[in-house]
Design brief:
By secondary structure, this protein is of the alpha+beta class. It has helices spanning about 10-25, 50-55, 60-65, 105-115, 165, 225-230, 235-245, 295-315, 325-355, 365-370, 380-385; strands spanning about 5-10, 25-30, 45, 70, 75-80, 80-85, 100, 120-125, 130-135, 135-145, 150, 155, 170-175, 180-185, 195-200, 205-210, 215-220, 260-265, 270, 275, 280.
Length: about 400
């Protein structure tokens, strides 16, 4: 008899892992604390490398049929001038673009794909609160209502506030994220193109995700500054936004109270060890990512693919996998280090100086170079679009009865 896998968390990492392990024939239960995937605190990016993975699974056409926007270039606007930062059209993959798709639609798609495998099950509205310790190894999870579910392996994919990594006693290295975010919506007319972009003006950074008839805005500010901004009053806040993005000034009445402005705390950290016998952390639970660059979803999905490549076959055959868990960390640590290193550089060299600037700023040197030599735009395109150490589907597919 095969082994039983429990995955805590139905975000990109958990759902993708759920699909791949169930596809390999491993009895897989994904447990998600919310009743739906309808949360808007993540980005909307489906990266070219993710589309490629779905291509390898024979699912890309179906994914592309779901409503989405296509983005081939990424822009940043500094001091009122727009710069093209990344050109995805030269990527060495079949689909040379990023899909912009609200993440709940993407996760619905992954759930539907996973549900076709009989080994897959999903429990929504169920919160994992602890791990079961069984003779020195993790032997299952405990739910909020006290129910215990036994497992041969538990994967913690419960995001950047992971309770499971703490319950597993895994040490965390805080890399410091000097920013937090106010997250709010502003209505807009629909446009033919997806106009997602970052705005950098003295003292203010705003990322704007184009979701058709509204902007999902991320107002970036120095960590810990939320109360000070709130104390300044909503009018002042609207004025700051309007100064940075004058074209949405007339729509800012849509922010009626501070209830419409959610505080998102940003973290950047990683576990020194992602596993212990019976337990593995992946995605943000193993390495919380900053929103900078919009790459955390890609890393989370690539972690799930690597975990399945290494563990799904042996688990499906009923073999013990504890000794293999370190291989997942060894495979994924390098890309995580590289990307987190870049995020730290952007925090320190771009966001910090912009947020503390009070006079007209010059675009950073790197941005001016990218603008002057468009061929260089292929480098950020590769990092954002494909990531570092791209994974491919190598996990087996069970025969469907
Ligand atoms: C404001 C913001 C914007 C971002 N924008 C982008 C972007 O545009 N592109 C990009 O690539 N990345 C972006 N990121 C980073 C990205 O959101 C994360 O790196 C990515 O979501 C990690 O995926 P995950 O599956 O590991 O974790 P999560 O997406 O956090 O998913 C974890 C899941 O586990 C569930 N869960 C949590 N605790 C429990 C529990 N105890 N029991 C059961 N379920 C539980 C949660 O409800 C959630 O569904 C952004 C981050 C922030 C903060």
């Amino acid at each position: 008899m095969g082994n039983r896998l429990v995955i805590a968390g139905g975000g990109p990492a958990g759902m993708m892992a759920g699909l791949l392990f169930a596809r390999a024939g491993v009895e897989t239960l994904v447990i998600e604390k919310h009743g739906d995937f309808l949360r808007d605190f993540r980005g909307d990016t489906v990266h070219p490398s993710t589309i490629e993975l779905f291509d390898e699974l024979g699912l890309a056409e179906a994914l592309l049929l779901r409503e989405h926007d296509v983005v081939t270039d990424i822009f940043a606007s500094v001091g009122g001038r727009s710069y093209r930062v990344a050109d995805l059209t030269h990527l060495p993959v079949r689909h040379k673009f990023m899909m912009m798709m609200p993440q709940w639609h993407f996760l619905d798609f992954v759930r539907d794909a996973a549900a076709r495998w009989p080994a897959f099950s999903l429990r929504m509205d169920s919160e994992v609160v602890d791990l079961v310790l069984d003779g020195g190894r993790i032997g299952g999870v405990v739910l909020k209502d006290g129910e215990r579910i036994a497992a041969d392996l538990v994967i913690g994919a419960d995001g950047r506030g992971s309770v499971l990594r703490d319950a597993a006693g895994l040490a965390r290295r805080d890399l410091g994220a000097p920013i937090d975010i106010f997250w709010f919506r502003v209505p807009k007319p629909r446009t033919r193109h997806n106009d997602t972009m970052g705005r950098f003006t003295p003292g203010t950074v705003i990322a704007m995700i184009d979701r058709g008839d509204y902007w999902q805005c991320a107002f970036v500010f120095a960590k810990g500054g939320a109360d000070r901004i709130r104390a300044g009053g909503l009018d002042d806040f609207r004025k700051r936004v309007a100064l940075a993005v004058p074209e949405i000034a007339a729509s800012l009445d849509a922010i009626r109270s501070w209830d419409d402005v959610k505080l998102l705390s940003v973290s950047l950290d990683r576990l020194t060890r992602w596993h212990r016998p019976g337990f593995l952390a992946i995605g943000d639970a193993a390495h919380a990512m900053s929103p900078v660059g919009g790459v955390g979803i890609n890393l989370a999905i690539q972690d799930a693919v690597a975990a399945a490549n290494i563990l799904a076959g042996p688990l499906a055959r009923g073999e013990a996998v504890d000794r293999l868990l370190a291989q997942v960390q060894a495979r994924r640590l390098f890309p995580v280090r590289v990307v987190q290193g870049m995020q730290r550089v952007v925090h320190a060299r771009v966001l910090g100086p912009t947020l503390s600037a009070n006079a007209q700023m010059k675009a950073p040197f790197a941005l001016r170079m990218l603008d002057r030599f468009p061929i260089l735009q292929r480098i950020p395109a590769r990092i954002v679009g494909l990531g570092v150490r791209r994974e491919h589907i190598r996990s087996p597919a069970a025969i469907r009865k």
